[in-house]
Amino acid sequence: MNTIKAKIAVAFAGSVPGVESAPHEMVAYDGQQNHPLLPRVMDTFRFNKDLFMTLGLSWNREWSRSETDARRGVWIGGPKGAGKTTAPEQFFARLGVPVLTLTCNRRVPLSDYISKMVPDGEGGWINQPGPLVIAMQEGYPVVLNEPSAMDEADLIAMHDIIDRGLLVTDDGTVVKAKRGFLVYAADNTMGYGDESGGYVGTNVLNSATMRRFFKFEIDYPNEAEEVGILQARFPNQVKEALSAFVKFANMIRAPYNQRQSQVTMSTGELIEMVEAAVYFDGLSSQGRSPAWFAFNRIMGGMPPVEMEAARSSFQACFQIDVSGQ
Ligand SMILES: Nc1ncnc2c1ncn2[C@@H]1O[C@H](COP(=O)(O)OP(=O)(O)O)[C@@H](O)[C@H]1O
Ligand SMILES: [Mg+2]
Predict the structure, then answer these.
(1) Which residue has the CA at smallest separation from atom 13 of ligand 1?
(2) What is the pLDDT of residues 271-302, one digit of tens each?
(3) Phi, psi of 176 (to 5 degrees)
(4) Domain positions in the chain
(5) Is 40 left (phi over 0), alpha (psi -120 to 50) or beta?
(6) Residue 290 near residue 314, CB atoms below 8 Å
(7) Which residues is 5 bridged to in the sheet?
């Protein structure tokens, strides 16, 4: 892999608070512009500053550590739709680094990501390297989505891969990862299991697994940051209108944060609600609220108690009575 140095101030301009005055450079990859695994840069993505610094620590360390030091990706834990998966993808997108994102569950064994037998076209079978092996050989970071939903045995079997970049396959082949291969986790938990009740099927993880990651617990952005995210995404909407949406989302989140409800609203769902409200703008001429209609398309099916609470929060934020809608 050809590496180059990218100026942080330029590569991340506009996406991290205050980054324009950062004096440092970071390792970037050259010539990967057309690689299918290179995520496309989202101009509207706004990094949590502390998460950005943690991703930077992990990536810089990878390029300066001694050969015998362990690799360290970041375990990003937090609620749905907080940007846990997108943040490392967007971090690497801006550095031209292809990223392999894998979604974990009990049904897909680790071995499927390592190699697969495929027909050779002449009636026989050949062993084809899986995505994980390719990422190791090429030096691409891997993002594991929801690893706490994975079979624990599979995760433990990954320990050597995660920190030493070393894999010995069934047939004895040794795969030694290139520098740049790092494992990141985007999970609803911090390894201690789910305390909210909203994430079925998550396991408490072995502390030997968790020790192999830097840790970052993320929550939804604060009000000003989230209004900023919406403004970047919907530049034609006035700030006051976008603020009402963010206030509404925060009212939906409050009982969840106090562990009184399993329902919460993510940044991702908030963005989709605004998008649908803009799309359904014409409904207002029929005496219906586009924003409430949009909310139901995104968050519909909530239990009746939460739905009633949402109606009164909606009235408080938008000054519209939607009791009959
Ligand atoms: N900080 C952010 N800036 C812009 N968009 C965001 C941000 N966080 C989340 N989103 C939006 O929310 C969607 C869901 O994010 P995702 O990374 O899938 O969440 P998670 O992995 O935490 O469940 C993304 O597609 C993105 O559009
Ligand atoms: Mg995710």
Answers:
(1) 268
(2) 999 999 999 999 999 999 999 999 999 999 99
(3) -110, 120
(4) 3-217, 223-318
(5) beta
(6) no
(7) 27
What is the 250 CA–ligand 2 centroid distance (Å)? Answer: 20
Q: Contact, 269 vs 81, CB < 8 A?
A: yes
CATH fold, domain 3-217, is Rossmann fold (3.40.50)
Is the Cβ–Cβ distance between 298 and 276 less than 8 Å?
Answer: yes
Probe ligand 1: pick from 86, 216, 270, max atoms within 8 Å of CB?
86
First to last CA, the chain: 57
User: How many angstroms separate the alpha carbon of residue 204 from the centre of ligand 2?
Assistant: 18
Query: What sign has the CA pseudo-torsion 224, 230, 231, 233?
Result: positive
Rounded to the nearest angstrom, the gap between the alpha carbon of residue 237 and the centroid of all alpha carbons in its chain is 26
Q: What is the pLDDT of residue 52?
A: 98
Atom of ligand 1 nearest to the CA of 221: 1
Distance CA 53, CA 18 (A): 12
Q: Which residues contact 92 (CB under 8 A, 6 or more apart)?
A: 39, 98, 99, 141
Low-confidence ranges of the chain (pLDDT < 50): none
Q: Using CA atoms, how far apart are residues 296 and 283, in angstroms rounded to an integer? A: 14
Distance 22 CA to ligand 2 centre (A): 28
Residue 154 DSSP SS3: helix
